[in-house]
Amino acid sequence: MARALVIGGGPAGLMAAEELAAAGCEVTLAEQMPTMGRKLLMAGKSGLNMTKAEPPDQFAAAYGAMPGALRAALEGFGAEAVQDWARDLGQEVFTGSTGRVFPVGMKASPLLRAWLSRLRQAGVELRTRWRFDGWEDGRALFDTPDGRRAVAADVTVLALGGASWSRLGSDGRWAGLLAGRVAPFRPANMGFGIDWSAHMWPHFGAPVKPVALIAGGRRVRGECVISARGLEGGGIYAVSAELRDGAPLALDLVPDLPLADLARKLSRSRGKASLANHLRKTLRLDPVRLALLQEFARPLPAAPEALSARIKALPVPLGPPHPIDEAISTAGGLRFDALDPGLMLRDRPGVFAAGEMLDWEAPTGGYLITACLATGRHAGRAAADWAKTAHRP
Question: By the 8 A CB rule, do 365 and 48 touch?
Answer without folding.
Answer: no
